[in-house]
Amino acid sequence: MTKTIDVALIGGGIMSATLGALLHRLEPSWTIEVFERLPRVGEESSNPWNNAGTGHAALCELNYTPEAPDGSMSSAKAIDINEQFQLSRQLWASFVEDGTLPDPRGFISATPHMTFVWGEQNVDYLRRRWELLKDEPLFAGLEYSEDAEVIRSWAPTLIPGRKKSQPIAATRSTDGTDVDFGALTRMLFGRLQDDGVIVHTDTTVSGLKRLSDGTWRLKARREVGMTPAEVQARFVFVGAGGGALKLLQQSRIPEAKGFAGFPITGAFLRTDNPEVVARHNAKVYGKASVGAPPMSVPHLDTRVVDGEASLLFGPYAGFSPKYLKTGSYTDMFETIKGHNLMPMIRAGLANLPLVGYLGGQVFASRAQRLDALREFMPDARDEDWRLITAGQRVQVMKKDPEKGGVLQFGTEVVTGADGTIAGLLGASPGASTAVHIMLTIFERCFPEHMPRWRDTIRELIPSYGAKLNEDPAAARESIARTARVLRLVDEPERQLEAAASAAATP
Hints:
Blueprint: E1 3-10, H1 14-26, E2 32-35, H2 76-97, E3 108-110, E4 113-118, H3 120-133, E5 143-145, H4 148-154, E6 168-173, E7 177-179, H5 181-194, E8 198-200, E9 203-210, E10 216-222, E11 229-238, H6 244-251, E12 260-271, H7 274-278, E13 283-285, E14 299-305, E15 308-318, H8 331-334, H9 338-350, H10 352-362, H11 366-376, E16 386-400, E17 404-408, E18 411-415, E19 421-426, H12 434-445, H13 450-460, H14 472-485, H15 492-504
Helix pairs in contact: 1-5, 1-12, 2-14
């Protein structure tokens, strides 16, 4: 017998976890079920080793302030991304305060964000970027220096071995974070399960069809040999990462037509050597190579996973036709349709530098990858670093009335006209802006409920519907409150604990 539920969440990552947690708070009587193809939630794109986990706030990521041909740049995108990340911080803080989330140190840690560049032209660009952003309320405290000693005090690994004559510059924000989205995902789903939400793991949704009564029939197959089961849902969220495009195509909603995906494999150099890790505590971003997609901006990252710190450098791009790290080599070919073939071709022709960049990355040797690392860390030793494969990122291509097809950077929200289905395509900043994305889905898919929901949403997310950057006092208060609740700043008792520990150490 087919059962009917209120909400089906396809995919067990941070997006479904965020949507599920919010919907459960707003409508606790609604029945919610989750379908994840892997044995454990949070193991594909949300896994900490499959993503950079920065907590994208655009504090130091240069791709959010691109330089126009005339040398000008705009702060609008950087401010917008920062606003979106503040929504995530506010929700997490509210969930910590009410007990939905346990100790926040299990998923977030204070980690300074930096930009580091070299060469006169890049130094000039970074100086102008700092001048553009330093007086914006959400970027308060952003520091700038061209002094090697100052930069060395911020990130000691960047300077030793570097030529003194090389022009260098850096910016730093101490408001940056490192986020383990896999741990956060499991915490959110764990609480939902405690409240009765059913999470099906080892379960693949292989069919999605709209029925005449407006509900959706999902055909779910257990990976451990059980017969397929069918579920009907009044609302479906397709948060399946790279698997979302195929399912949205199966839904046959007109809004999904014209979309295509180009998969890019990511890889990082990683070190767990305690001596190396201890010398670097920051996420340091550089400038992307010519033709590189925004997701390939090089960065030397402190990562904190299960309480242990490591360093990552990358990403190095590659190619596989898989749409998921655990996907099939036929993924890309199965999604090529008559309606998206031309957008793919036109987008590819318009982005030949990207094709050239990927070709160079695919065939790069270990020595070449280490040379790229040494542009950031000149004294890096070969033996300290190993290559790890990160997650797949599916770059969105879509129809464009003027160009025929364009490459779409960022995360694309696709919703059906009647509000019964929504899905996500694309990549970065993705996870960091999950709360903003879910609020967008609420406004598109549940307009009739929003009048009732708004007060609760504002209790959880105080700046919902407002712009923090337009209110300096509100921006300061929000950043300070979330930093305090999320344990991103030392509280008196932690200082006393640290002092007592130091005194007890011989």
